[in-house]
Amino acid sequence: MEEAKVIEDPLIQRQYDEDIPEEEEEEEEGCLRAQVCDEMKKQIGLAGPLIALGMGSALETLCGQAYGAKQYHMLGIQMQRAMVTLTALSIPLAFVWFYTSTIFIALGQDQEISTTAGTFIRWMIPSLFAYSLLQCLNRFLQAQNIVVPMMIASGVTALFHILLCWLLVFTLGLEINGAALANNISNWMNVVLLGMYVKFSPACTNTWTGFSKEALNDLLSFLKLAVPSAFMICLEYWSFDMVVLLSGLLPSPKLETSVLSISTRVSNELGAARPKGARLAVCVVVVIAILEGIIVGGVTILVRHIWGKLYSNDEEGLWLGIICALSVQVVALVVINLLTNWDDEALKAVNRVQTSIDIE
């Protein structure tokens, strides 16, 4: 008998080999299939939020520049503009989520996994709209360096989410549908809490002046920044997540699947026409990131023989490819920042803010 392979999760440990009884093999297959399904649901659930996250990055830039230029009323206008755009974008994404099962089956994925994941993601559709609005509110507050209310709102929502999951998933027995419903309620609760803060807090008096038709003007300027930002974020995440989909096409998919502050600061400095300050902020964060990477990397190397065994005993060379890809990305970004003309970027930021004001 060959040595048993081990696939482990920090909370779930399974062993199997080629000679186990048929009943145990079926049970094992069911457990592994459930793990694959959970992973599929996670990756599908990230698709919509990643797009919202990427396009929300454009709002961070625009609000940060407006705040640095002391055009405070433009922050509220830009946030409404982003809300309109992201809500409109969420509509076609909702249709894609609704037909997730059909799409995945057409792509050759396992029918049972696709059906279960599709049911879960359908229940998550309301959360897609909430997440889009939440990104706008977060960027609006972050550009003003208002972070404590966001922390409190997130903390309250997280505590409520735990109780809600216990009620819906275990007490009422809704299982995965209850988990999706809990996500919907919690995300909308977070939106409501931050929306009330923006509406009634004195800290937002100058930046939030109420709803305005001006938000419908110059949507193209927002999209010019939002679309590239969305592509950048999505491609970065999907380059890793695509492994899950590709593994579903392999002969044994159950086994293969086992295996923000800096941008705000730079936007503020550019909006205030201080290119040297923006360059300094980038240099500081690069130094901090390198130091953090050295520390985390060193610890990871020291515990490499222990950490990996928490998940699998299979020795694969996947990490080498990931490290090479990330290294190329880092070098490319460093070169781009070194070659950036920060005086021109500051001028563009000032002109962008002034153009928005003239249009309004």
From TrEMBL:
Protein topology in the membrane: Multi-pass membrane protein
CDD domains to which the protein is assigned, alphabetical: MATE_eukaryotic (cd13132)
Transmembrane parts of this sequence: 82-107, 113-134, 146-169, 280-306, 318-339
Chief localization: membrane
One MF term in the entry's GO annotations: xenobiotic transmembrane transporter activity
GO BP annotations, alphabetical order: xenobiotic detoxification by transmembrane export across the plasma membrane
A cellular-component GO term for this protein: membrane
Pfam families in alphabetical order: MatE
Protein name, per record: Multi antimicrobial extrusion protein
Compartments, as annotated in UniProt: Membrane
Keyword Transmembrane carried by entry: yes
Native organism: Cynara cardunculus var. scolymus
Tagged with keyword Transmembrane helix: yes
